[in-house]
Amino acid sequence: QVQLVESGGGLVQAGGSLRLSCAASGRIFSRYTMGWFRQAAGKEREFVAGISWNGVNERYADSVKGRFTISRNNAMDTVYLQLNSLKPEDTAVYYCAVSASAVVTTTPTNYDYWGQGTQVTVSS
Fold first, then answer.
1. pLDDT score of 102 more than 90
2. Does the CA dihedral 44-96-4-10 come out positive or negative?
3. Is 85 left (phi over 0), alpha (psi -120 to 50) or beta?
4. pLDDT tens by residue, 29-69
5. How far apart, in whole angstroms, are the C-alpha atoms of residue 94 and residue 123?
6. Cα dist. 65→20, 31, 58, 68, 112 in Å?
């Protein structure tokens, strides 16, 4: 069992930045692919970014490439998502998730454990 707790969300103006954190506990965090997803009101959950267990491979949705950066600190069992140049369309609940997949996958059903989410609201 893995428990995930996200933090760092909030209200920010367009063009601003936020840093989301996801603290993990339970199984060996360092062996898992980690992902960030988001879900806006009335929309399906979508992949945002993912990182391999060793931090070597990263993957991003086209909509956030060049603006968001995912990173992880295995010693602290934490994964981060740096959000820069935020836009109103980035407004959503952001979730971190754990996958046993050896590759960074974008499919939500390939992720086994999820956090409770943190709200990010970007005002225009």
1. no
2. negative
3. left
4. 778 899 999 999 999 999 999 999 999 999 999 999 999 99
5. 16
6. 16, 25, 11, 6, 25
Encoded tokens for 20: 């989301």
Which among 26, 8, 27, 82 has a CA at the least distance from the CA of 51?
82
Task: Specify the 3-state DSSP secondary structure of 47.
Answer: strand
Structure tokens of 70?
């995912």
DSSP 8-class letter at 85 = S
Closest to 30 measured CA to CA, from 114, 118, 100: 100
Give the position of tokens 């840093």: 19
For residues 47-57, one letter each, b for 16 or more C-beta atoms within 10 angstroms of the residue's C-beta and e for the rest, the string is bbbbbbbeeee
